[in-house]
Structure formats: structure tokens, C-alpha cells
Give the backbone structure.
Amino acid sequence: MSAQPEEPPAPPAPAAAAHLLAQLRADRRAATWVPAFERDWANALEDSRHTYSLTPLHDVVRSWQLRIAASPAVDAFTDSGRDDSGFVDLDDVLGARP
């Protein structure tokens, strides 16, 4: 059996960041999501300037696209009234981390 090399994901379209920002501004979470996206984008832009690579910018676009895609499922869970208070905080289990 031979392993096939994993192909890297295709880069987002050139206007993907602008389209994504427009989607974020139209969302009900715009007050928190737009500043967070802009912060992530600025950090990725600075990383790209130092590394001469567009990968950090592509990673920001992909991660925010996934957040937007997952938001209806998160909304459905929170609106369902399911009790998720039975979970234990990881810090309580592991203790303080360095």
C-alpha cells in the first residue's frame, strides 16, 4: 500500500477577505466578530510581511469561514435549551498550568 501525498488546500479567492468581512458586518455578532477578524487579519498581515508568504492570510480567511459556517449549529445548540453546565473546567482537573 502506498501513501499518497496530501494536497494542500486551495488558496481562498483574492476577494475572500473582503467578502468575509461583509458577511461579518451583516451578522448579529458584528460588534465582537468584526474587531476580532480585523485584529487577526492585522496580525497575519504583519506575519506575511516578515515571511513573504500569504499562508497566514489564507489561514485567517479559512478559520473565519469555518466559524461563520459553524455559527448556525452553535445557535441551534444554545437555542435548544440543552444543559451544558455538567462539564468540568479543564483547569479544575489539571490544576494551574505554567
User: Anything to note?
Assistant: The CA atoms of residues 32 and 75 lie 16 Å apart. DSSP finds four helices and no strands in the chain. Residues 31-70 form one domain.
